[in-house]
Amino acid sequence: MNVVALDAHSRSIAAASLDLGARGARTVVRRFSTDPTGIQKLAMQLYPEDVLLLEASTNSFWLHDQLSGHVNRCHILNTRKVTLQGNKSDSLDAKRLVQLLATHVTLATEDEMPTVYVPKAEIRELRALFAGQRSYRKVITQTKNRLHSLFRQCGIVFPRARMSTSAKWHAAIESHPLPSGLDFIARGLLRQLRVAEMESQSLLQQIIRKGLATYGQEVRLLMTIPGFSATTALTVLSDIGDIQRLAGVKQFSSNLRTCPSLHASNRTVHLGGINKASPHCNSLDPECESP
Fold this sequence. Notes:
291 residues, 47% helix
C-alpha cells in the first residue's frame, strides 16, 4: 500500500508517494500539471488500496472529486492546525505531508489527523453563492460610506438609518446640489450602488432557489423557530453541511463558531471574542432576519 500526498497549486502539483510495504522505501516526488491531461496522468499513478492526502487550498475540493475514486481513502489536511517546519518548496512540503500521513496510517490514527470536512457539490455551490452575496453587501456598505463622506464635506449630514437604499440616495443627490466635481462622483457612486443592490438581490433569490431544492424539508422545519427566515436557515445549513457528522450540541455550537471563548477558574470567568473564521454564520445580513 502506498501513501500519497499532494502539494497543489493553481498550475502544478507536487506528488510525493511512499510504499509502506517495502522496507527502506524512499519517498518519490513527481510533478504534474493541473490541466485535464496532468490530472489523468496523476490518477494513473494511483492504486485502489492507496491513501491520499491533500493540503487544504482553493482547489482541494475539486482535486478530491477528481481523485477520490481512484484510491481507498482521501483526506484534506487542515493546515491551520498543523505546522510543517523547515525550508519551503513544493517537493519538501509534499515529502513532509507524506511523512505525516505515513505516521498516522502506520499507527492507525487517521481519525486523529486534523482534516477538513468535504461537503457535497450542492452545498459548496450554496456556500459560493453566500460568499458572492456577502461581497456585494460589502460593496454596498463601502459605497454608502463614501456618499456620506461626500455630503459631509459640504456640511450635509444624513442619519445613516434613513439612507438605506439607492432610491433614497438618488432623492438626496437631486434635492441637495453638490459642487460639480463632487456631484459627478456622487452620481457615479449612485450607479455603482444600484448595480450592487440588484446583484445582491439576484444572488439572494438564487440562494433561496438552490437552497430549497437541497434543504427544502430542513428549511421549513427551521422556519418554525421564531426569528428564522428561509435565508437564515440556509445560512446555518450550508455552514453545517451534514449535521450527522457532529456528535452533539457542543460540537454544533463550536462548528458554527458563534459562541465566545470561555476561560473559567474558581469564581473568575473570562469571556473572549467570537472566532471570525466562519464564512457564513458570523456575518448574517439584515435581509436574513425575519421581521
